[in-house]
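To illustrate this point, what follows is a protein record of this kind.

___
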Amino acid sequence: MNMTKNLLQIALLGHPVLRKKAQRVKSIKERAVQSLIDDLIYTVMDANGVGIAAPQVYRSLQIFIMASHPNERYPNAPEMPATPVINPKITHYSEETELDWEGCLSMPGVRALVPRSKTIKVTFQDREGNKHCDEYEGFIARIFQHEYDHLNGLVFFDRLDSLKDIYMEKEYKKIISTHKLVRYDIIC
């Protein structure tokens, strides 16, 4: 493992790397790949995020980190250790979907209500190269789908049902602190 962890710069929406399909990782145990995993973990923790994908740090590789934990933006997030996910594939999406809040380290200050499958089945490799077949639901499934989208050149704006589901962070914080969502639909 990399003894020196580097805080990586996060690409912002508009940079072409966020719209590019990421390349499969061929040599997982390669030193550069292992260092990138360590740096991604360090960067997502420093940003107090719940996930980060390699394209978000200008590396077009199929790697992301899931690191769910309660925080100011997601107070009800479940606790999980930082989990590296390499060469993932979603093999099944439940028909049942749910609308919930998402944000993105590449789009600071913006939140939106994003529809996602409630349950997914996935395959991926860990940092040792071991294959995993798992099923996720709820918030963890949401993180996986969000980060998986980054590997396919998508951002959460691409999943919205309506532009009316986009909120600035200040308004989002008011909503989650009062637990009241008011949709500002214009009736014509």
Summary: Residues 97 and 118 are 5 Å apart (CA to CA). The longest strand covers residues 83-93. Strands lie at 51-53, 63-66, 83-93, 97-103, 110-117, 119-125, 131-137, 166-168.
